[in-house]
Amino acid sequence: MKAIETKQLTKMYGSIPVVGGISLVVETGEVFGFxxxxxxxxxxxxxxxxxxxxxxxxxxxxxxxxxxxxxMKKHIGVMPDYSTLFDSMSAMQHxxxxxxxxxxxxxxxxxxxxxxxxxxxxxxxxxxSKFSFGMKKKLGIAQAIIHNPSLIFLDEPTSGLDAESALxxxxxxxxxxxxxxxxxxxxxxxxxxxxxxxxxxxxKDGSIxxxxxxxxxxxxxxxxxxxxxKHGPIPTGEAQKLYSWLESVGTELQKDxxxxxxxxxxxxxxxxxxxxxxxxxxxxxxxxxxxxxLEEMFLAE
Amino acid sequence: MxxxxxxxxxxxxxxxxxxxxxxxxxxxxxxxxxxxxxxTAGISLTETEMEDIHTGGLxxxxxxxxQLFVMGLSHDxxxxxxxxxxxxxxxxxxSRPRILLGKFAGAWLFWVVCIVISFLLISIFSLNFNLFxxxxxxxxxxxxxxxxxxxxxxxxxPSVTMFxxxxxGMLFPIVSFWIVFTGNKWxxxxxxxxxxxxxxxxxxxxxxxxxxxxLIMAAAMVIFNRREF
Lengths: 301, 229
Description:
Helix content of chain B: over 70%
Structural class of chain B: mainly alpha
Number of helices of chain A: 11
Radius of gyration of chain A: 25 Å
Number of strands of chain A: 14
Largest sheet of chain B: none
Largest sheet of chain A: 6 strands, mixed
Helix content of chain A: 25-40%
Largest interface: A-B, 24 and 21 residues
Strand content of chain B: under 5%
Distance between the termini of chain A: 31 Å
Strand order of the largest sheet of chain A: 6-7-8-3-9-10
Shape of chain B: globular
Oligomer: heterodimer
Number of helices of chain B: 13
């Protein structure tokens, strides 16, 4: 079953399309990462799916149910991008209240367990007004999973958290994935997305510019593998022949007496380049291969 | 809906404003019932009016200040949640009609409890619980709560609804009495949309007020369904 399916989902503010006709499929059990710069439309997209705002046009279904509707809402958990919690309530009261809204009453033991999962053990009875930013963030995640939803939306779950807390949340997301739950998350932390997500979409100006599994994206961007060779002097008779061949196999060739940098389209070319240098009797001292990181892919868009 | 109503109901008892309003209601009920006989000495009343004299003070208070009291407590019932963005937690978990009805039910139950206690206090002196007047008061309260809910949905800022709530609360009885008793035919027709008109006569026409409240809530629901948070 598809966890999320959107068809030409659009949100206009006046004549400005904040989200411009996004069609997307997220399969059950995926951890889907949504990347994009500030203002790209990520939160608007999540807000439409979760019923916070209404789409201008297009349609979507969550867990096979055309949304948003009450039946579907019981099975989704949402941590909105920026939300103040109910200051007058304790963490425990929060979880009990919000879970009951989703039609599931939870015991104190369950609340304690979830608080422990997000790293908030021992503060269940503390008023939210006395919580730090990080603690509120963690409680925001706790409330999204307290009613055991199948589909969880996390809008920048670790922004503002210290490294240890972020790691805690990473483990939690990983365990949700192991339980077969679908997680749809946005993040600015590209390492986090690379580490946690099975599928990624990059959003720009309200549209998805690239999407796919991490491997698919890598192979797409592998058309830009940079190979740097530190080598000895090239025999005079061979230089012209070698450089013309290099120009034919790659792009962006930078040649120096002892350093050649070339961008190639596939991994297979690396071996060919090394072979070409050795065939020309050039000693190779070091080979550096740089694949684009997610950050570079992201910035490229 | 029950969880939202329960939270609203309990929350209303916690504020200083509500404690003051409850105190004013109860003190008025107590003293008006206790000293109601003084009124009978100065005014000539019918036998039926004599029977209801104990509730007179409370009725007077609710007719004149009821809307103000309701506005004071419920003007920000919905927009406070939107303003503080806690509404996002509610709309992602339950339907908007349930949120609105839950809020309404919580506020309604609060006022029913306050009015029941006031009437019980009066019944100690009058040795009689006037169910008819009690029902009329509940009908008026229902209308007033619906107005407060509508205001809280139409105006997104709690500070604005606080100001408008006070203004409406003070003007509502004045304008209502004027509309109900005016001889101006251009204005007079408005009385059919005013709850006071249905309270003037001692008959079951007051039930229309529940219908008016229903219409206001339906309008509130339409607007609330279009809101974005």
